[in-house]
Amino acid sequence: MIRFEQVSKRYPDGTTAVDGLSFEVAEGELVTLVGPSGCGKTTTMMMVNRLIEPTSGRIFVAGEDIAGVDPVRLRRRIGYVIQQVGLFPHRTVLDNTATVPALIGWKKARARARAAELLDLVGLDPKTFGSRYPEQLSGGQRQRVGVARALAADPPVLLMDEPFGAVDPVVREQLQDEFLRMQSAVRKTVLLVTHDIEEAVRLGDRIAVYGQGRIEQFDTPGAVLGAPATPYVAEFVGADRGLKRLSVTEIQSADLEQPPIARLDESAEQAAARLREEEARWAVVLDADGDLHGWVGVDEVGLAGSGGAVGDLAHRMNSWVPVGAPLKQAFGVMLQHDAGWVAVLDGARFLGVLTPAKLHEALRRSVDADAQGLARSQVEFDSVADA
Description:
This protein is α/β, with parallel strands linked by helices. It folds into two domains: 2-248, P-loop containing nucleotide triphosphate hydrolases (Rossmann fold, 3-Layer(aba) Sandwich), CATH 3.40.50.300; 253-364, CBS-domain. The chain has helices at residues 41-48, 71-76, 93-97, 99-103, 108-121, 126-129, 139-151, 169-186, 197-203, 221-226, 231-237, 241-245, 268-277, 298-303, 327-336, 356-372, and strands at 2-10, 16-25, 30-34, 56-61, 64-65, 78-82, 157-161, 189-194, 206-210, 215-219, 261-263, 282-286, 292-297, 320-322, 342-346, 349-354. The strands form four sheets. It has a six-stranded mixed sheet, sandwiched between helices. A four-stranded antiparallel sheet has the order 2-1-4-5, with helices on one face. A three-stranded mixed sheet has the order 11-12-13. Strand 7, helix 8 and strand 8 (189-194) form a beta-alpha-beta unit. The two termini are 49 Å apart. Keywords: ATP-binding, Nucleotide-binding, Repeat, Transport. Belongs to the ABC transporter superfamily.
């Protein structure tokens, strides 16, 4: 969808903002441009909508060389979101959102209907917020309106320059979550500029790590964190890149251990006998369909006598995560509940448990898989969990 071919930008004073950039962004892909201030990432983005003209090289959008496209027409088909939002203070939220559709000739009713649809998509009820003015909104709400406005004319490309940088960390994370949810629904081709490596890792399908005017590494978040291409990238992503990688490594079924199982409707006496035979201190309690019901300790079922059922003794399971969740989420649940493991579910169906040793193993496999160009299941090493 977006292609750079040997693109450079040099200013009359001799400053080179970007130097010989060549990369591609696939349709529906979200690419984050990350690096320190002054490295050329914003210049790169602004050349896509010709707010800055390149000195040399060519940029293509949807196969068309943008040098031959009228800049105004080009910008009206590319969404643009900036940190300061730039809403018109004298216009309502609904009219702000409908700005671009109105400019390209949509009828007022259609433009306002589209604006209402987009406000709802970004989590702002148009009935509640549509008639308000920007000064009546919080910073996070204004940022949501800015995203809605950028999407209103249904542009194939979205450019975002530090879109969540002007809000506090809690709101920032909420906006990131909302944007990821929205992107999964609309699948725009996105270039997002940030100086925050954690934001880049969390949002990007791929990351372009900038040095001074050039890209030092262009790869998936996992590869950037697990196998930095240069000493510069390793220093930029930080010594704690292993912890950052927890947020981009998904839990897979192969990562799990299978604990002792007790069935919801079996007698406590039967369960106790089996658990003692297995020398197990506890068991996961499942119903007949394999859905998670809770957990129970061996001593509890042992004391219940022959008349009780496992289901009467089971405790609620609070420490669980869905399969496919990031390892960081599982680690957080372990810490929150002071748990030695977390249950992993597919819907309600129980798949197994993730222990600290297995979490570490999954992280190691993920790093080695990227380094060796293999699937995680193909990576072999001595496991701490098996020692």
